[in-house]
Amino acid sequence: MTQATAVLADDEEAPRVQLVLALRQAWPELDIKAIAVNGADAWDAFLEHEPQVCFLDVRMPGLTGVEVARRIQGRAHVVFVTAHGDHALDAFDTGAVDYVLKPVDLPRLRHAVERVQARLHQAPTDLHRLLTQLAGQARKPPTLQSIQAAVGKEVRLIRLDDIVYFESDSRYTRVVYEGGDALIRTPLKELLTQIDPDRFWQIHRSVIVNERCIASAIRVDDGAMVLSLRGRGERLPVSRHFQNLFKAQ
To answer: Last residue of a domain, which of 116, 137, 158?
Structure first.
């Protein structure tokens, strides 16, 4: 039997350590690929490791566990980690989702583990309705409206409406906008927590594109996909994780 893989995420150190230790008892064969301290790192770890199971704290700064789960949707089994008294519990008690309470209760964790193990060879549960309900309960800070970037000796204020795409560039993030490009120090995974995901689509681990600038998605012979942009010559790669964004209706 293939060893199951997992990613864990919790922004609080004590519960994070407690969950790891409890999982080693409840599921000693589980291969924990990454332990993230926030939602952005959890999403990045998911893209890197493609685990079968994700244990996600519901409330984390930046990307919440709910937002990470929405991005993962259908590609891994999700177990939420939440505190006693959290209003999310009312939604979880429908039985559609597995959850673990903090502080971790080993018998309850064993029960969640058994449920996940029984479903490992099935498609992950469709959590769309639940995640939509949970997302509506969480308040989010306003998204960015502009970005400050250095262009030569000038610090330029670039409106998000003018940005075509973001691209990871070694230690920097390249901002390509109508009229030029610039480098900023903000990592791509941090930008994901500050911009509107309905306007800016992540299409690759290293690329986020302004949806209104997309002209078409083109499949190539080896199953890969690239995007063409309105009025531009670039072709942006779309990784396998994000190809389902482009399906004919």
So the answer is: 137
pLDDT at 11: 93
* pLDDT at residue 24, rounded to an integer: 96
- Please tell me whether residue 54 adopts helix, strand or coil conformation: strand
Same domain, 194 and 234: yes
Whether 170 and 239 map to the same domain: the answer is: yes
List the domain range (segments joined by +) for residue 74.
5-137
With contact defined as beta carbons under 8 Å apart, do 124 and 78 qualify? yes
Q: Helices then strands (H, E): number in the chain?
A: 7, 15
Find the length of the chain.
249
pLDDT at residue number 125: 83
Determine contact, residues 80/99, Cβ cutoff 8 Å: yes
* 223: helix, strand or coil: coil
Give pLDDT, residue 87: 58
pTM: 0.83
Give the chain's radius of gyration (CA, Å).
20
Q: What is the per-residue pLDDT for 86?
A: 59
Q: What is the CATH number of the domain that holds 168?
A: 2.40.50.1020
Residues of the chain with pLDDT under 50: none
For residue 221, what pLDDT is reported?
A: 77
Q: What is the pLDDT of residue 108?
A: 87
- DSSP SS3 for 184: strand
Q: Return all residues near 113 (Cβ < 8 A) that are at least 6 apart.
A: 23, 26, 27
Counted domains in the chain: 2
Among 6, 73, 58, 52, residue whose Cα is nearest residue 33: 6
Q: Alpha carbon 169 to chain centroid distance?
A: 20
